[in-house]
């Protein structure tokens, strides 16, 4: 597909920001494990956080495809920043926009759309990852308030200086899961320490603990008992955005490897002139191109109101694998330099593996695709 002039212009603006503002400094943030709040706020000024959100609350209502273009361009340079944006929007702000009350939208969306605040979606628990329907966190209504007890793990944007909101899933009754909004600083909510991660070191990922955490009853997001259905819908969009992020990483690895292969000489000529290297680069181009087609197709279907769950699974599965393969081959082309942490390909190598795990493992994506073919139907429909 061809991008519209508006889409191409926006993607170019985000690419310029990524190249001029993120690339020169992100390595330092990454190695120190520091969240780049200043860069994230500047992306907010560029309009990235509001792309999909309602105009009346500061957004642009430009669709998932436009948002994915921005995510790809950011991830070409750094995926820590890209996942910060992706998680805040597709799993956080979109939950309020799609399922929240008018008051919730007025209260929280303007800040989230402007990139002045971030949202965390607290789904994963210590006792359940792929089994997303297994929710040990409990919430009960008491004197007009939800009282929440439980724990969450691996939550992106949970403890930054910009975090405005946490949306937590909790069991609110037998076979009933609901989503409840909790603001940082609420008594009974403890934000755990930052994890020591292999990759995504410039993003914020923490555990959360709820111990008698009380919030108003009106903080229920969407219908009571519909939380499971809600987050499955959000995850479809999130998987498309993760596919765009993975495509950006795959393309970034190709860019770095190609430039290096043309400059690096061995035996008196650039290593790109060797067929083994040239074919590796060709395969990297193939993967990035195909991954891009997959996420663009899924996003276009989503924006057109079509069913796109299977397409999202295909895009997420293929693009994440493409990112892993391209990071591995880029590191090989760089040789010993690729094993040095200061190189972009080394960061990509550390970052890419989580893409095959987060927002539904690749095994789950295969299950979704298989079900679309009429097989695996006996398994629970909870992925």
Structural class: alpha+beta
- Low-confidence parts lasting 5 or more residues at pLDDT below 50? none
Number of strands: 10
SSE run: HHHHHEEEEEEEEHEEHHHH
Shape: globular
Mean pLDDT over the residues: 95
Could you describe the largest sheet, including whether it forms a barrel? 4 strands, mixed
Rg to the nearest angstrom? 21 Å
Alpha carbon gap, first and last residue: 30 Å
Could you explain how this protein is built, in words?
By secondary structure, the chain is α+β, with helices and mostly antiparallel strands. The protein has ten helices and ten strands. The protein has helices at 5-32, 37-46, 64-77, 79-99, 102-114, 227-263, 275-303, 309-334, 344-352, 362-372; strands spanning 118-122, 138-142, 145-156, 163-173, 176-182, 189-191, 205-216, 220-221, 265-266, 269-270. It has a four-stranded mixed sheet, with helices on one face. The chain has a four-stranded antiparallel sheet with strand order 2-3-7-6, covered by helices on one side. β2 and β3 (145-156) form a beta hairpin. The radius of gyration is 21 Å and the shape is globular. The two termini are 30 Å apart. The mean pLDDT is 95.
């Amino acid at each position: 597909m061809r991008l519209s002039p508006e889409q191409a212009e926006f993607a170019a603006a985000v690419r310029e920001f990524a190249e001029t503002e993120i690339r020169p400094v992100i390595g330092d943030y990454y190695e120190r494990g520091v969240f780049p709040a200043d860069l994230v706020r500047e992306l907010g000024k560029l309009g990235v956080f509001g792309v999909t959100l309602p105009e009346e609350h500061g957004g642009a209502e430009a669709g998932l495809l436009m948002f994915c273009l921005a995510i790809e361009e950011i991830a070409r340079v750094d995926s820590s920043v890209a996942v910060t944006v992706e998680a805040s929007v597709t799993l956080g702000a979109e939950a309020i926009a799609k399922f929240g009350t008018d008051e919730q939208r007025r209260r929280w969306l303007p800040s989230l759309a402007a990139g002045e605040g971030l949202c965390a979606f607290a789904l994963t628990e210590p006792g359940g990852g792929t089994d997303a329907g297994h929710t040990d966190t409990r919430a009960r209504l008491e004197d007009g308030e939800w009282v929440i007890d439980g724990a969450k793990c691996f939550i992106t944007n949970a403890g930054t200086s910009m975090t405005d909101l946490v949306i937590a899933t909790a069991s609110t009754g037998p076979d009933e899961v609901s989503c409840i909004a909790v603001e940082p600083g609420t008594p009974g909510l403890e934000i755990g320490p930052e994890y020591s991660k292999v990759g995504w070191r410039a993003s914020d990922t923490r555990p959360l603990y709820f111990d008698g955490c009380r919030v108003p009853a009106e903080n229920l997001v969407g219908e009571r008992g519909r939380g499971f259905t809600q987050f499955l819908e959000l995850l479809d969009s999130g998987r498309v955005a993760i596919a765009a992020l993975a495509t950006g990483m795959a393309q970034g690895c190709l860019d770095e490897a190609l430039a290096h292969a043309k400059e690096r000489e061995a035996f008196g000529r650039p290593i790109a002139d060797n067929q083994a290297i040239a074919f590796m680069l060709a395969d990297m181009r193939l993967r990035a191109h195909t991954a891009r087609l997959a996420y663009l197709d899924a996003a276009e279907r989503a924006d057109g109101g079509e069913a796109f769950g299977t397409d999202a699974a295909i895009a997420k599965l293929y693009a994440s694998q493409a990112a892993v393969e391209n990071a591995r081959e880029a590191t090989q082309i760089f040789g010993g330099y690729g094993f040095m942490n200061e190189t972009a390909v080394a960061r990509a190598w550390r970052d890419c593996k989580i893409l095959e795990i987060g927002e539904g493992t690749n095994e789950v994506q295969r299950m979704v695709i298989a079900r679309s073919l009429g097989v695996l139907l006996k398994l629970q429909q909870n992925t």
